[in-house]
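Try this one yourself first.
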């Protein structure tokens, strides 16, 4: 009789813990299509060092060091001028994940020596 009582109480206690665990609200992640992390934006100017099909690079002075930043070009990028290696460019950009995406680029033609 004593064994039955202990077994019944143990089963009842287990059932209470199971119900308590199931009744907690589930934490769900938002759908990746609806959730986008916050983007950062910035502006730099420097000399264009490389131009590709969907990207370009600009050498920017940071303190005493020269840093090369790569920018992607998308359908919404506005470019004033022509992207040519050696030209000076002012770039407004946004950062999504690890990519810098150019929003507005103003290119000053490279100086040619005569």
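Now uncover the answer:
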């Amino acid at each position: 009789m004593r064994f039955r009582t202990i077994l019944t109480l143990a089963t009842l206690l287990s059932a209470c813990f199971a119900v308590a665990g199931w009744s907690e609200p589930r934490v769900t992640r938002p759908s990746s299509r609806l959730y986008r992390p916050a983007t950062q934006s910035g502006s730099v100017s420097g000399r264009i060092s490389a131009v590709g099909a969907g990207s370009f690079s600009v050498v920017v002075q940071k303190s005493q060091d020269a840093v090369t930043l790569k920018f992607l070009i998308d359908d919404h990028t506005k470019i004033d001028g022509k992207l040519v290696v050696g030209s000076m460019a002012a770039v407004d950009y946004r950062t999504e994940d690890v990519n810098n995406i150019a929003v507005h680029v103003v290119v000053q033609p490279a100086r040619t020596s005569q």
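Discussion: The two ends are 109 Å apart (CA to CA). The beta strands are 40-51, 55-62, 65-72, 78-80, 88-96, 99-108.
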